[in-house]
Amino acid sequence: MSFDKYFNSIQDKASRYYRRLADLDDLIYDKYFNKFRGKTVFEAEVLSKPGEVPAEGSTGNTDLFIPLRVRIKDIHDNRLPDPYDAVKDIQDEVEKLKQFRKLILSHPIAYPDTKNLMQSAISQGLAQGSIVEVYFAEEGPDFNGRMRGLRYRQVIVAAPTRSIPNELSIASGFEGGETLAVGDFSEFSSLEELLSLQQGEGAESVDQIAEFIENPEGTINGSGYSEATSRVEAELARWSGLSETSEATLPFLTEYWNNIINTGEPWFQDQWTPTGTRWSAAFISYILRGSDFKTSASHLNYFKKNGASNNAWKLFSLTKPGQIKAQVGDILGYDGHSDIVYKIVNNVAFLAGGNLSDTVKIADEITLENGTYPDDVYYSLVLKRM
Hints:
Blueprint: H1 2-9, H2 13-32, E1 41-46, E2 56-57, E3 64-65, E4 68-72, H3 83-87, H4 93-105, E5 109-112, E6 131-137, E7 149-157, H5 191-194, H6 206-212, E8 219-220, H7 227-238, H8 250-259, H9 280-287, H10 299-308, E9 313-317, E10 323-324, E11 331-334, E12 337-345, E13 348-356, E14 359-367, E15 381-385
Parallel strand pairs: 5-7, 8-10
Antiparallel strand pairs: 1-4, 1-6, 2-3, 4-5, 6-7, 9-15, 11-12, 11-15, 12-13, 13-14
Helix pairs in contact: 8-9
């Protein structure tokens, strides 16, 4: 069809004449006005703090990849809003942080050009706001091709080029897990596809699941999990004044990991370290042991596992319309982290989480609306026991 259209357009002299003019215009534009002509290297601003996007590789200093979220000069200027400019007039701090995080997560991830940590740009004083050199790699043998695509290799400006708003970051102080962009929902035709655990398939973020699913009509109640109250309070007590770097907490962390040893996710079994492996998902899994909850070392994975199963746990969106009653045991999450409701007092839901500033602590207090979650809650997805 396209060939026929082109062929017909050159059948007469007038069509051929105007076709040549159009081709000439294209050539002139490409030579004199196309700013990308011949470019293979670009400048990019670092949007994420080093360490906010989960590292890959071994925990040693010679084989660890530190991914970064970046904004490429010229390429993204006309495609994605600048996160800082977009939120500067938002007065509500919670809403500002939420929008800032979503905009950053819409930008691509760049991997370093070397697996030697001490030789990569990360060792050159790189920080959020720095300018780095990036390029697009055609080959990426490491990690089954995960390094194929956008790479960074040289720090052009190490110090931040503009003022970074206080507390505005991807993790917002949380030691999160997955921090992938919301992405395009059109590739998913069913919830089953969205919740697939197969490599390269399914949702790539918690926020993506929340934006895809629809809540049922009417009030969503659920039975909750009352044991979460005493279990969380016990953890808060034994972690009081301690952090993951304390020798006394090693038995606690070991309990968390032993609880999820049979999840079918062997990656952490011989690799976790007390101070190097994120354990916030393992903490939630430990609190909910014995509740028919499908555990995981990944927040995204346990949302997927429980959402796709026939157990008592069901997913609901906090970004879509719906009356969702808060219950003890509810897991509220967004990209990279989730917390658990461990008590509800005087219409206020108290949430706790693990790996928050390297310890267990109260994560949030949400004022409910007649017992239901408000529309402006910071989290995007809730997993409830029904």
